[in-house]
Amino acid sequence: MARIASPGHPVSPDRVSAKSVHHQHRFILNTDGQSHPLENIGAALTAIFGLVAAVCAFFPAMHLLGSWTGLAGMATGLWSQMISATTAERFVNISGVVLSGIGLLFGLAHGGLY
What we know:
Blueprint: H1 37-56, H2 63-83, H3 87-110
Helix pairs in contact: 1-2, 1-3, 2-3
């Protein structure tokens, strides 16, 4: 019979039920359970560059920012794709590269890098 904990008498760790174990939240890009700080930073930078470049694609006057962030996002994303360790990181990398490419191409069409 399982021992019930009372306020003054803690239950030993070997008798704790599975329901009472608190699960730690993991970062969603680390699907293999290991930490990948360099790969995660690369994926995050690629996503940020891609979002900025894609937003700038809607405004022709922002062709400089869109072109340069698109170029930086493409370079960062392709490098990050080569060193990625999990499928989630690869998904973020490719999404960022596509958005960066869209921003780069629209930026070049609206006036270029200079």
